[in-house]
Specification:
The complex is a heterodimer. Chain A is mainly α. Chain A contains three helices and one strand. Classes of the chains: A mainly alpha, B mainly alpha.
Amino acid sequence: MVPLSYYLVLSGFLFACGVTGFLIKRNILTIFMSIELMLNGVNLSFVAFAAHWHALAGQIFVFFVMVVAAAEAAVGLAIIIAVYRTRETLNVDQVNLLKL
Amino acid sequence: MISVHLILFLAFGAVCVAGAINLLAQTHPINSALSLIAVMAALAGEYLLLGAEFVAAVQVIVYAGAIMVLFVFVIMLLNAGVEERTQGSRVAVLIGIPGMLLGSVLVAWVLLRHSGTEAVAAGALPGDPKTIGQLLFHEFLLPFEITSILILIAIMGAVVLASKPPTSPAGGPARKVD
């Protein structure tokens, strides 16, 4: 048996890693991956709480989070391709204008 | 007393932590993507330990499969290279790494101190596809249908954004052909 708090600590660590990656990375693709890491950390705490409180709705919510993450990945990667086509760079320091 | 359950939790958790740290440490996006796949596969193991079989399967198929294949495909398409360090990124590393450690330690301390030691039993909750499906198509039918519209909009948005812009717009001056 594993205490609930262990799962939550792991989830919090994954989320913290995601936030840090979002802040310190300069490649737009790696920043996007850090967002996925944050979503995964939140999903773990959803499933852990669902098991702890015997509420199956938590797992349904993880399913919806995954659907939104898939939609976000498709649109986000399309935006990254569009940015690369106009700027020819993936470094976020050089992408500082909304105007094309 | 150390149970098999705890040992499995620690093994999968170690893979998760190592993968997440490796994602931050690597400078090439393809290495970061591969370590993120390792994190997601290990998380599927954690879901199995919690009895969420359906979520574990979807995690492997959708996250580690579809989404990460999309990432790797875009990395290869754009020929992404090693990221260069700049002044701003050095400042971000100096502030970000201690901030992450502080945040993690704070969360761990609060959780371990203020929560009981009641354990989550393995397979305490039926998370098999049949139960999930019944819940999804009865109680959560409307949100489920709305997500299908969301996916449709995302598909159209991705096609519009990633398609090549017309070389000579209808209103603009036509390009001269030599």
